[in-house]
Every structure is written in structure tokens, then in C-alpha cells.
Amino acid sequence: MTAKTESTRREQTRAGEERARTGKRLTHADRMGRGKDARDLAPLESHAEFTPDRSRDPVGLLLGQAKSRVPELVPIRHGRMLVSPFTYYRGAALPMAADLATTPTSGLRVQLCGDAHLSNFGAFASPSRRLVFDVNDFDETLPGPFEWDVKRLAASLAVAGRDNGFAAKDRRKIVLAAAESYRTAMRAFAGQHLMDVWYAHLDVDDTISAFRSQFKAKRVKATEKMVAKARTQDSMRAQAKLTTEAGGQRRIVSDPPLIEPVEEIFPEVQAEQIYKLIGEVLDRYQRTLQSDRKHLAEHFTLIQLARKVVGVGSVGTRAWIALMEGQDGTEPLILQAKEAQVSVLADYCGHSQFGNQGERVVAGQHLMQAESDIFLGWTHVAAPDGVSRDFYVRQLKDWKLSAPIEQMIPSGMRAYARMCGWTLARAHARSGDRVALAAYLGSSPKFDHAIAAFAERYADQNERDHAALQAAVKDGRAQATMGL
After folding, report:
1. How far are the Cα atoms of 257, 288, 318 from residue 387, in angstroms, in the given order?
2. Alpha-carbon distance 5 to 8, whole Å?
3. Which of 73, 190, 301, 457 has its CA 20 to 30 A from that of 108?
């Protein structure tokens, strides 16, 4: 670090402490100056840099995570990560967080998603019953440098492009599209009123209309078909898929180890004791809901609970599905309670202000998303195994739509990258200083090109890390179960 950079950092720190002490508001010019000054800490071109630490051990980090997870599910996680470099990347948020901590840092902090790869964006139903596109995974959310999310997204596009067999020039265009979309969107948000930024969202139907002229009719029709299917993905559809009728009552179908009713996991504990505990947990969860939504939730009664394996990176953390029914017994609601552990960013960005990790996830999601699930809440569980854990709760499915990444062609992924870039910028503009961020990013494509260079370098590293996990499984250091 140069003397000038260190001097600038000390000056910015003193200025921030003074503002906190006096409560003085920054002028627009002050905010722009703050953004431009941040270039002394991390010039735009510096974001291309990535030099792996020789002592890094990504497999060791993954095995360290496994210690707090369900032991018999950890091999499933590793098996899913081994499928391809892209599936490895999806599960490797912690190794990348450690790597990002070694890169130049702007000092411009926002609420980070913490795991902003392209599969953690998607469409779902808003409370107004419109299909909206947004970030949809917040397990790792925490305040931190804005560029960490951008780099996580950019590298995921490069990795996915390689998995799809795209040429290097096509991958570069895709990543440039994401970075440019982020940068230009942030500059647009900087010129808007805060309330306009807060209300901004990406409506899927409107987006299809906007892109209609840029794609062949066949692809537009296929997209519209996916959207129509997404609108059927609700609790009724989930109930039909996950449950069966037995003795006049709906029961969750057991499919170990992917779905296991709670009675099968804790056979030594009386079912009556388990459901008494679950009832208390649901009551605490409902207290975290907005009052009208709490009133709605109280109309549903718990029928059964089961553990479910979800995702790639999340496998091994405890995730439960709760089958609920309305008062007349014909209206289902399926909630998902997912364990929230300490964010992978915590060791590098500082620990959360929230003592409950479920509350951390919910608060981050509310801050970043334009519209969140009406049943989103959090709770704390003293489980039958004697260990206390934090959870957040939401609907299992509500018009959820995930893009088929492996089926994308370069032009489609480029359009998708623009959507992700805009969405991430909007999420960051809500929590960070959008004026400072826009001033830092500037009007030239320097930042875009630096991010594109970083993405390819990190895709190289990701392939080496994927191979390292393969070797660890082969020599017995790690265990993996394939095909689940």
C-alpha cells in the first residue's frame, strides 16, 4: 500500500467518524467526492487483479464448514459440487470470500448478497401477484465492499459460459454486459430520488415485451411457456408433488436422504413432544411477521414437518418443510424453514449486528429485494438433539422460476447477464451510497473491462479448485455421494 493510499484511507476514516459523531449530512458534491477518492484506494483497473495466496486451501475451508452441518448430508453436498466446475462454484462461496479479501477494495460498502452467482437470481411472485425478477438467496448476506457481489456474479458467468462451451470472446461479451448494466444502472439510480429507487423493480412480463424484438419468435415463445409454468408453482403444486393421502390426512412422502419426516429422524423422541416444540417455534416465528401477515399465518395449522435437502452450497445445513392446512382442511400452505449459520463473509467483512442469524438473513433480504415473500420471518430453535439453531422461514414455492443456465446460448446469457447486473445495482443502490458508487464507477468502461479480466482469471482458479476437490475425494480426505 502506498503512502498516498494509506493517507487517503486515514482521511476517509476520520471523515466518517466525524460524520457519525456530528450527524452531519453529506452534500451531493461530498458524496461524489467520496466516490472519486475511493479510486485512490482501488483504481478501476485494479479490479482485474487476482493472485491466489499460495497458502490457500479451498478444500480445507469446505471441510471446516462441514463440521456444523448434518454429517450424513455433507457427502451429498460434495457430490453435487463435483458434477461440474459450475456446480462447484455454486457451493464455494466461502473459498471465494477468502480470495476476495486479498483483492483491492474500494471501501464503498453496501448490503451484499454474499453469494450473487447467476443461479441465485430468478423470478417469483410479488405480494401484488406479479412475476418479478430479483436476487433470491440471502444465506450469506452481510454489509461489505460492493465489488465483491459484482465479482461473484461476473465469475459465475464466465464459469457457466465455459460449462456451456462458449468461446472466450462470447464469455467476455457476457461478462461485459453484466458489468456495464450494473455500472449504467447505478449511474441512473444516482440521478433518481431515493423513493424512486426504492420502488424500482424488474417485472418479468414487461421485460419479455422489451426483449421480444431482439430474439427469435421460437425463443420468446419458449420463455413465455416457462413463465406460464412458473405461475403454477405454488403450494397446491408442491402439495401434489411432495405429499400423499393416508388415513384421510395429507402426509409428506418419505424419500431418504432427500426428504425425511421428523418422526423418522428422531424416532426415540415421542411425536407429541416434537410437535409441541414445533408449535412453540412457529409461534415465535409468527411474532416476527408484519401484523396482518401474522393474522394470515394464524389461519393455518401444522400437519407435518420433514427435513429436505436443498440447493448445492446449502446442503448439510438443516432445511425443513412444514405442511400446513387452512381452517377448512382444503387449502395447503408449505413453508420452508432453513438454518441460518454465520455468513461466509463474517471473517472478512465483520460480524453481523444481529445476534440471530435468521434475522440477519431476513433483514438483508428486505433491504436488497424490491418485494419479499409475505411469510418471510425468522426464529430460534432448541432442537431435540440439544443444539440451538437459528432459522429463517418463507414459502417453499410461490411462482418460482429459475433460468435453465445449461440450455442458454451466448445471446440469451448476455441478455440474462444484463438483467442480473441491473438487479444487483438496484439492490446495492437501496443500501449503499448510490451517488458515491456512480462517481466511483464513472462513465468509461474501465470498470467493465477490469471485471471481465477478473472473471476469466477466477474461472481458471475455479477449475483448479474443482480438481482439488476431486483429488480430495479420491485420496479419502473428503467424501462424496454422487447422483443425489
Report:
1. 21, 22, 12
2. 5
3. 457
